[in-house]
Design a protein that fits this description.
The chain is α/β, with parallel strands linked by helices. The chain is about 35% helix and about 20% strand. The chain is built from 13 helices and 17 strands.
């Protein structure tokens, strides 16, 4: 059976060859879906009948959001830590160990239930592709089970054994790096597509990060890097050096960091939910965009520093606080996220792409930033199936 989505007032394709401007906007459009893929896009007046019809009622349709940075496998929450930050305490990343203890103590069923709840929540808000990291187990067994559970919900799984040094290795960080590079990686790699490291003061320095990422590359994993979140550092330049798909956070950048990104294929993935939740300075997206750096937006959903699954919220923050236009933010939350995952079948609406799209309860993509906090997702279409 095929599906026709018609009576679309504004269709954002992210393909300039199909429509107007960098977002490839088509007015009064229709989309034909067959077997989970887009078969045809054009003016609604030229659409052929289909087995099923979804009437967009003149609303805007955009590609499904691609959330390329999320930490959904965990137990417990850290609401008191959030309250303390709102009262003036600084964020240091130290609370990660609290979540590690809770995650290790949780059952598989409890962890699975949390991922399922958050994945369903994200889907309701238009996220059709999500990357999920491990990183709250920090033992061989717990990292592997985190990735196995994550793989039940997405093909975009990331091994983050190098999140922080766990308490039992506090005085032996070199030994922990050896564990990550050896037994942990060998056990985790079959369940992951990517490897990541928190290259930051108080986590892993450049030498340790390079060692971990290099051995991950040798095992066939793609590279991602948590970089320059808490202060200036080597993370962004290391990401570019290793040909990483993405350098994530990018909050504290100097000119050499921006130049390195501009001359590379590494995407700068910005996570404004983290700055919102930690009362930190936002990254300067305008500076990156003006340097022609590819920018993605993602939620960084995690229980400590960004407990949100809402890509529309991140779009609104990016426009209000980071110097992005609404069009740039929508592109970053869709096509930008796809580029950060090195995918060409998502984040765009064109024949042959996966039929992932969002029907907004609004006439234009502009409303995602114009009406912050309002639930504007009327329908999410995932793999050609409307879920709302």
């Amino acid at each position: 059976m095929n599906l026709l989505i018609d009576n679309i007032g504004e269709l954002v394709t992210n393909d300039p060859a199909l429509g107007r401007g960098p977002l490839g906007i088509v007015q009064r459009a229709a989309v034909l879906v067959e077997e989970g893929q887009i078969a045809w896009i054009g003016r609604a007046a030229y659409a052929q009948p289909a087995d099923r019809r979804l009437d967009a009622e003149g609303a805007a349709v955009i590609p499904g959001f691609v959330d390329s940075h999320a930490h959904l496998v965990f137990a417990g929450d850290r609401a008191p830590e959030f309250a303390a930050r709102m009262a003036g305490e600084a964020y240091t990343g130290g609370g990660i160990r609290t979540t590690v203890a809770a995650t290790r103590a949780a059952s598989d069923d409890d962890l699975r239930a949390t991922v399922e709840r958050l994945r369903r929540e994200a889907l309701r808000q238009g996220t059709t592709t999500i990357e999920i990291k491990s990183g709250y187990g920090l033992s061989v067994a717990d990292e592997v089970r985190s990735l196995r559970i994550a793989r039940e919900f997405t093909e975009e799984t990331t091994f983050l054994g190098a999140h922080v040094v766990p308490p039992e290795y506090t005085d032996r960080p070199d030994d922990y790096v050896g564990l990550v590079c050896g037994p942990m990686l060998r056990s985790a790699a079959p369940h992951a597509r990517w490897i990541d490291v928190f290259c930051e003061r108080g986590a892993f320095d450049a030498d340790h990060s390079r060692a971990i990422l290099t051995v991950g590359q040798a095992a066939g994993l793609g590279v991602r890097v948590h970089a320059n979140q808490l202060g200036p550092g080597p993370g962004v330049r290391l990401a570019v050096e290793l040909g990483a798909a993405s350098a994530d956070h990018c909050t504290h950048l100097d000119d050499s960091d921006v130049d390195a990104l501009a001359g590379s294929s590494t995407v700068a993935t910005l996570l404004p939910g983290a700055e919102f939740s930690t009362r930190s300075a936002y990254p300067d997206a305008r500076r990156l965009l003006d340097a022609r750096v590819a920018v993605a937006l993602a939620t960084d959903c995690n229980p400590g520093s960004s407990y949100t699954t809402s890509m529309p919220f991140c779009i609104a923050l990016a426009v209000r606080e980071m110097g992005m236009t609404p069009a740039e933010a929508v592109w970053a939350a869709t096509a930008g996220g796809a580029r950060a995952l090195r995918r060409t079948d998502i984040g765009v609406l064109r024949p042959g792409a996966r039929a992932d799209m969002v029907v907004l309860d609004a006439p234009s993509h502009l409303h995602l930033a114009y009406r912050p906090g309002v639930p504007l997702v009327r329908h999410t279409v995932h793999n050609g199936v409307p879920s709302r």
